[in-house]
Design goal:
The chain has a four-stranded parallel β-sheet with strand order 1-2-3-4, with no helix packed on it. Strand 3, helix 7 and strand 4 form a beta-alpha-beta unit. The chain is globular. The protein is α/β, with parallel strands linked by helices.
């Protein structure tokens, strides 16, 4: 699927509004992965930048009425349900954000993957400095996506997984309950996922180094057990 190759430094860091041409290209994108832009640029992005990009990706010829705007939250929930097209969001290298910009995804029925780890593929999950991401800034959005039951893959920052607060642990518990309500099996061996002593997402003592969500490939979002091997005799989920 098309992604964010069209994003450039000027449109993010210098211009208040993205050009009509950029909007037209963005309209065909459903995958927002910041690993595809320069690492230094990603580290400079603000919450305002991220919010603007998400808004641009979901831009439609829609203007809420004054009556709709009287209930701000309900208005944007309605807009997101009708016009959101973004399916994947990976905030790779966005080290300068607190997470407030992703509220534009509140209530979206389209989002399948959210990666808040801020690190790229095959990189250490531990950041060199404490993350600026604030759980209170993303909590409502994450809960709304879980309730809509479209989410397939959730990756949280390493520090949240290893030292979860009570609120983070509660969110993960709700996420695991969402998966428990689904009928999922390994695409290769067809065993039911997960087994009685396994969970889709672990935090705290049950979180191994580098391990995020189990049983779901972060690229294709298909489901495999932790034992099945691929054509190269390596574990599919390794």
């Amino acid at each position: 699927a098309p992604s964010i190759w069209w994003i450039d430094r000027d449109s993010l860091l210098g211009e208040e509004f993205v050009s009509a041409g950029t909007r037209a290209i963005a309209g065909y994108c459903d995958n927002l992965d910041f690993e595809e832009i320069e690492k230094d640029l990603g580290a400079k992005l603000t919450d305002h930048d991220v919010e603007g990009i998400i808004l641009c990706l979901n831009a439609e010829a829609y203007t809420p009425s004054r009556r709709e705007m009287e209930n701000y939250t309900d208005c944007y929930l309605r807009m997101n349900r009708q016009h959101n097209r973004l399916k994947r969001l990976r905030l790779t290298n966005c080290l300068n954000i607190t997470g407030s910009g992703i509220w534009r995804l509140l209530g979206s029925p389209m989002i399948e993957q959210i990666d808040l780890s801020l690190v790229g593929e095959h990189e250490s999950p531990e950041l060199p400095h404490p993350t600026r991401l604030l759980f209170r800034h993303v909590k409502d959005t994450l809960y709304s996506l879980i309730e809509d039951d479209a989410l397939k893959h959730l990756q949280l920052p390493w520090s949240w997984r290893t030292n979860p607060t009570r609120d983070i642990a509660a969110l993960v518990e709700r996420y695991n309950k969402m998966w428990a309500s689904r009928d999922v099996s390994c695409l290769k061996c067809h065993r039911d996922l997960p087994s009685d002593d396994e969970r889709w997402l672990n935090v705290g003592a049950g979180c191994e180094r580098g391990t995020a969500q189990l049983f779901t490939c972060s690229k294709c979002l298909k489901h495999y057990c932790m034992e099945c091997e691929g054509d190269n005799w390596e574990n599919i989920m390794s």
